[in-house]
Amino acid sequence: MRKIIFVLSFVGLLAGGWVAYLSGITQPPLPPTFSPPTNPYPSGIYAEGMVESAQPSGENINVYPEVSGTVKQIPVAEGQEVKKGTELLLLDDSIQRATVEQLQSQAQAALTLLDELKAQPRKETLDVNEAQVVSAQASLKTAQDELDKQQAAYDLDPKSISKDALDSAINAVITAKANLEVARRQRDLTKAGAWVYDINNQERTYNALYKSYLSASALLSKYTLRAPRDGVVLAINPTVGSYVSAQGAYDTYTQGMDPVLVLGSPRAYLNVRCYVDEILVPRVPSAAKMKAEMSVRGSTIKIPLTFVRMQPIVSPKIELSDQRLERVDVRVLPIIFRIQKPKNVNLYPGLLVDVYIGE
């Protein structure tokens, strides 16, 4: 029994010594995956930069609809290059389209009535009026002949015809003359055509309805979002069936409103917007002497930059969570550089990079 205990103790001692030996071995450190960025200029200054699409002003093109509605179709995809005027997004326009068709029909009806007024007198109506004049003339002749007969008989023998019959014949002639005058005036009125005031009033009615139709048509075109210029679709925030408005599309994750679509410039060139801390602003070289180099984080890639412009205003640093509530007000000077996108480097708008500026 003692021998067994002695053997086990000896084995345990050997195992403890082996473990202590292994624990004392120092492992060599792993080589770094990439080297941290270094300042290539003797007196260069550091600035945090952000890659963005190349624009003459601003960063990207944020597309918002001018009307509210439900997304019916999205004919483009993220990363797709589009030309100016390309359809980007279609909203449900069924109600507005029906309104346009209704106003168009009303304008066409008003125009038809206007053409009818201008086309007067209608030949068929004028023929009826002429026939009425002929009929009135015949009635007058008949009445006049009857009066002449009765007057002649009365003149020969006053007792051959009563005074009342003679007076009735006279009244019949007067009535026939009046009817003939009315028929002639009605014919002349028809010949004159539509009254100029009626035509002017109908013209104004048509113009008002036509302009309403044009206005509704212009609003209908707003239900289709088109590319304002050539570019690349960087982001599409809503999906088919989502509701969007002039404030943009609701983001479920941030619970805020985002642009419906974001467009960038063609991919041949990119801009890098640098933010120089206010304490380094006095050391910024002049534009004619300015040089800069960009380092892509997580790699050893270094790319020279070309100066484009400087925004001559120092503003709060955009990385702050809430500029109005931050107690420390860090202010920066924006400087914009341009690069030609390398073929074998993944650079996308929104990427943070390290920039050194020298002269």
H and E string: HEEEEEHHHHEEEEEEEEEEEE
Which residues form runs of ≥5 with pLDDT under 50? none
CATH third-level topology of one domain: Elongation Factor Tu (Ef-tu), domain 3
Cα-atom radius of gyration: 48 Å
What is the average of the pLDDT values?
86
Helical fraction = 25-40%
Q: What would the principal axes of the Cα set say about the shape?
A: rod-shaped
Strand order of the largest sheet: 1-12-16-14-13-17
Class from secondary-structure proportions: alpha+beta
The helix count comes to: 5
Give me the CATH architecture of one domain, please: Beta Barrel
In percent terms, what proportion of residues is strand?
Answer: 15-25%
What is the CATH C-level name of one domain? Answer: Mainly Beta
- Number of extended strands: 17
CATH superfamily of one domain: Efflux pump adaptor protein, beta barrel domain
Tell me about the largest β-sheet. Answer: 6 strands, antiparallel, barrel
